[in-house]
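Tokens for chain A. Residues wanted.
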């Protein structure tokens, strides 16, 4: 019976604390309550927006460029990046398929890509280099960080599937590969035992390919050197376009394939480095810190102002423990309400971010919005309240003499 009485007593104090908070918010201390609740709401809103951006990065929702490039890659469980995959399943009959892709409305350029790590010899030195084969065209631009313009367009060695056209022997080297062998333009190199390649240009490697020594050659010539000419094989397709509808057109080219956007390639390194997780954790720490400091400051000042009320409660025989219960209830109600308001504000902020981004930068949302962010933000708001309680309870105890419990 004693336990039941205690429970009933504590529930009664909690109910009084909730009613007292509502009364202060609507009548007696509107401004102070708004400041406390608003500070938590702002911190939670920023937390929700940063979390939405982090989740957007982690789930590859963004196409981060004015032009929309797509990669068509085989379905695979390999963790390697599609940009430089060299050991995954391959597509067949890629020249024929590439011709179909380039005929689609909205496609500016397309090429199959075959990437192999092969021994390259020059100046009595042999090193393994990432050799990439492409079908060059004036609109293609860069592949794996190297410009394709130095290659003769349209892969002349491939003659209607016979592989008996004009052999160009052209190779574009990254500056890292050129330094590795000490070669310059117009010098010869041997790729996988074939000595008929000549350096046509040395390119400064862009960040797309990192610092890996890379060589760019004609697709059909690399297929001939590596044995991939038998089935006209390649690892993937690169499709350059400014039309999002192209994605649906190329999705059905091969039954077991995946179409990934440039944004998916951009964030692959983000996932590997756990940047999105770091963003979310940082946002939580910042929100907890700012929210706790704001609540402690505003609620502490409010307790100082309410010193007479606390003394009155002591004179009425309300114990210190009961007064602490009232203060704790008020604090958790305020921070919980601030968490709810901040979560809703954060969802509105995410929508605004996506709207601005889609009008200025991308064609797809860059941040994820979900109703689960509301309980997430509310929970963080309550944690802020719990972190604020110890100091507020110390302040309360020092300002009131209280009576024995």
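Reply:
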């Amino acid at each position: 019976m004693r336990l039941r009485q205690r429970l009933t007593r504590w529930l009664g104090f909690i109910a009084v604390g909730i009613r007292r908070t509502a009364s202060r918010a609507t009548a007696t201390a509107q401004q102070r309550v708004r400041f406390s609740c608003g500070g938590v709401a702002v911190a939670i809103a920023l937390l929700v927006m940063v979390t939405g951006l982090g989740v957007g990065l982690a789930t590859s929702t963004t196409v981060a460029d004015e032009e929309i490039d797509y990669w068509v890659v085989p379905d695979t469980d390999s963790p390697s990046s599609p940009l430089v995959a060299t050991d995954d399943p391959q597509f067949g009959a890629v020249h024929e398929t590439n011709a179909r892709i380039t005929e689609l409305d909205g496609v500016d350029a397309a090429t199959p890509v075959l990437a192999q790590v092969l021994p390259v010899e020059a100046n009595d030195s042999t090193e393994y280099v990432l050799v990439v084969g492409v079908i060059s065209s004036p609109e293609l631009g860069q592949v794996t960080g190297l410009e394709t313009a130095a290659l003769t367009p349209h892969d002349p060695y491939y003659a209607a599937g016979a592989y008996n056209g004009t052999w160009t022997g052209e190779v574009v080297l990254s500056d890292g590969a050129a330094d590795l062998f000490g070669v310059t333009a117009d010098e010869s190199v041997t790729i996988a035992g074939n000595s008929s390649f000549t350096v046509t240009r040395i390119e400064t490697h862009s960040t797309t390919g990192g610092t890996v020594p890379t060589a760019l050659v004609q697709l059909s010539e690399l297929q001939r050197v590596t044995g991939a000419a038998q089935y006209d094989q390649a690892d993937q397709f690169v499709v350059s376009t400014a039309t999002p509808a192209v994605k649906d057109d190329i999705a059905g080219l091969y039954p077991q394939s995946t179409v990934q956007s440039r944004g998916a390639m951009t964030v692959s390194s983000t996932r590997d480095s756990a940047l999105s997780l770091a963003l979310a954790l940082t946002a939580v720490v910042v929100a907890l810190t700012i929210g706790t400091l704001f609540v402690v400051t505003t609620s502490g000042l409010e307790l100082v102002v309410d010193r007479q009320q606390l003394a009155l409660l002591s004179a009425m025989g309300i114990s210190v423990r009961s007064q602490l219960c009232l203060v704790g209830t008020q604090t958790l109600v305020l921070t919980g309400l601030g968490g709810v308001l901040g979560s809703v504000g954060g969802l509105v902020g995410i929508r605004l971010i996506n709207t601005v981004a889609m009008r200025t930068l991308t064609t797809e949302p860059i941040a994820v919005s979900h109703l689960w962010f509301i309980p997430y933000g509310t929970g963080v708001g309550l944690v802020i309240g719990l972190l604020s309680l110890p100091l507020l309870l110390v302040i309360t105890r020092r300002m009131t003499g209280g009576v024995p419990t």
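The longest strand covers residues 107-122. The two ends are 18 Å apart (CA to CA).
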